[in-house]
Amino acid sequence: MERAEEPFLGEIGGARLGQIAQNSVFKSGPVRGNYTQLALEGWVFKPSLRSASQGGHTLAVSSPVENMRDAPNGRVLARLISGFLLDEVERRGNWVKVRRDVWVLTAALRRPPAPAAATAPPRGPTAAARPAQADPAAAPAPAPTGDPRRAVVRRRMQLYRAPDSTAIGQLEAGTPVRITARAGGWVRVEAQAWVRENEIRPSDSGILTGLSASELRGAPEEFKGKLLRWTIQYLSLQTADELRPDFVPGQRYILARGPAPEYAFVYIIVPTERLADVQRLEPLASVSIVARVVNGRSTYLANPILELVELP
After folding, report:
1. Model-level pTM?
2. How far apart, in whole angstroms, are the C-alpha atoms of residue 289 and residue 277?
3. In 3D, which of 227, 147, 231 has the Cα closest to residue 186?
4. Which end of the chain is more exposed for a tag (fewer CB within 10 A), N or C?
5. How many angstroms separate the Cα of 205 from the Cα of each of 161, 209, 224, 244?
């Protein structure tokens, strides 16, 4: 069975420091035994890094798990764990381009297809994490020349409440949509359409759905105390200290990314009666929760703070 993601090591025989995402392409270097050296290079969110001076490296990952992307807010190339050392290449706003040589099992790599005759060959060898069979119909559309938030559906497609979740509907080919968020190979879209009034009813659950983290940060007072349903990516269970003024010292909270597909950092206070359920979660698990808005913008990093109400 092919693995969707491939672990990498800083040194052969050393600890795992992260995973390379499927279909990611990096320059390859020397081969030693069963391992090949790859030059990881990509963009990391600046607040998830800290200064470091160890082994000749200048930066280290400060978050429990952080994504390396092919461009700011671009496709995920690899996932890096806390403490992973990196070298800075370039800065652009809140993003830092970084580099690091790592070792990967040679059996998990393949050479990318040879370029067309009209395309200049790449400089130096490359290797990629073994991909699943490609779908020719899923090839990316040409880059738009107008508003990048406007797009048109290329063919009849499924709609999903969150990435990799159950389909909830369809859009026909040619339907105009507005892109409101991006996450890896997914985009969140809005589409305008008409329905018969007698086929809908007002929401009576009192739980907000479809609310983004950016909307919450933009109007924190409007949503304070409201219930919302989010799909989050669980990272770790943390304990608040005196350096976090938004929490009571000793209070337990979830560090997460959410909601899908936005994946901004989110803090979720865990009531004592929910603690055992949270402790059973695996890092990077995708979880649907109901939570109450405590603060739409934390004091230092402007991240939403919620309180857990329901956890399936």
Report:
1. 0.42
2. 12
3. 231
4. N
5. 17, 10, 17, 33
Give residue 180's identity as a one-letter amino acid code: T
Q: Map out the domains of the chain as residue ranges.
A: 5-129, 143-190, 207-310
Beta pairing partners, 238: 253
What is the distance between the alpha carbons of residues 78 and 218, in angstroms, rounded to a whole number? 30
Specify the CATH number of the domain 207-310. Answer: 2.40.50.140
Cα–Cα distance between 178 and 171 in angstroms, integer? 13
Report pLDDT for 279: 93
Q: What is the pLDDT of residue 170?
A: 84
pLDDT score at 5: 57
Residue 97 has which token pair? 């381009």
Convert the pLDDT of each residue in 229-239 to its tens digit.
999 999 999 99
Alpha-carbon distance of 270 to 237, in angstroms, equals 9
Q: Please answer whether residues 101 and 32 qualify as being in contact, where contact means their C-beta atoms are separated by less than 8 angstroms.
A: no
Strand, helix or coil for residue 221: helix
- Give per-residue pLDDT as tens, 121-173: 554 445 555 443 444 344 444 444 456 678 887 888 888 766 666 677 888 88
